[in-house]
UniProtKB/TrEMBL annotation:
Family: Belongs to the pseudouridine synthase RsuA family.
Domain called RNA-binding S4: residue spans: 40-98
Source organism: Desulfovibrio legallii
Region of interest called Disordered, as start-end residue ranges on this chain: 1-37
The protein, known as: Pseudouridine synthase
SMART domains: S4
Keyword entries, A-Z: Isomerase, RNA-binding
Length: 279
């Protein structure tokens, strides 16, 4: 009998096991959901509007100043599409715009800002009308009494790379100084010098040639210290009569007149983006 009961138990159907509950760890390793067509990260969408750089967009989002479809959005990586409405500080964001890249020959007595509280002329005042509504911003600076090559763009990712120390590009300058330049001063620049304020400078490539008004120095810098050339010449007892930037990375000022601007060629844009790892 016992054997018969055991055979019946084997043939009796067993109840199904309940489905296993997904573990919390499963959600952590699950891949991201596929973004809808045309979607992009929120911070990238803000930068593409020309409002600011992507880094600044991150700060605006984290500060709670950005809304998506009327709701505050704290995540810079949130995917947004063309159907979403974005606003910053309650103001609707402009539609994404095409990037523009403009090379300006900045004149002297013009400031490298979009707005000047003292009412001085800005580099945006130098631009022709067709570029004034593109939300262009200067990349880097030239001081008030310096002139030469200055890049303006609404490409926030490129501007951020160009201004970051890890992507610093060599910049070339023509510097006209009064009188003669002692050979010892040139050697000091070439070796690398300490400024009066204490900063240690990298070696500078420099040559000197006679000029009707003094000596013309051709200088190539690989650092981005504020007013570096003026401070170097000050410490070496040299008086600057004119300071002009003539090259930055793959860009050249050429014979562009002072106060004039031109768009970069496609090849220049490609070379510039490649130089900072964006192409």
């Amino acid at each position: 009998m016992g054997s018969e009961h055991r055979d019946q138990d084997k043939n009796r159907p067993r109840p199904a096991r309940p489905a296993a509950k997904p573990s919390p760890q499963a959600n952590l390793v699950a891949g991201p959901q596929e973004a809808p067509a045309g979607a992009q990260r929120l911070n990238k969408a803000i930068a593409a509007s020309g409002l600011c750089s992507r880094r600044k967009a991150d700060a605006l989002i984290l500060a709670g100043r950005v809304c998506v479809n009327g709701q505050p959005e704290p995540n810079p990586g949130r995917q947004v599409g063309p159907e979403d409405t974005l606003s910053v500080d309650g103001r609707p964001l402009a539609a994404p715009q095409n990037y523009a890249y403009v090379l300006l020959h900045k004149p002297v007595q013009v400031v490298c800002t979009a707005h000047d509280p003292q009412g001085r002329p800005t580099v945006l005042d130098c631009l022709p009308e067709q570029w004034r509504d593109l939300r262009l911003y200067p990349v880097g600076r030239l001081d008030y009494f310096s002139e030469g090559l200055l890049l303006l763009t609404n490409d926030g990712a490129l501007a951020q790379r160009l201004c970051h120390p890890s992507h610093h590009q060599p910049k070339s300058y023509e510097v006209l100084v009064r009188g003669t330049v002692p050979p010892e001063a040139l050697e000091t620049m070439r070796r690398g010098m300490h400024l009066a304020e204490g900063e240690k400078l990298a070696p500078v490539t420099v040559t000197a040639a006679p000029h009707p008004k003094g000596m013309l120095l051709q200088m190539e810098l690989h650092q981005g210290l504020n007013r570096q050339i003026r401070r170097m010449c000050r410490d070496l007892g040299l008086t600057i009569l004119r300071l002009r930037r003539v090259a930055q990375g793959p860009l050249r000022l050429g014979d562009l007149p002072s106060g004039a601007a031109r768009e970069l060629t496609p090849d220049e844009v490609t070379a510039l983006r490649r130089s900072v790892g964006l192409a």
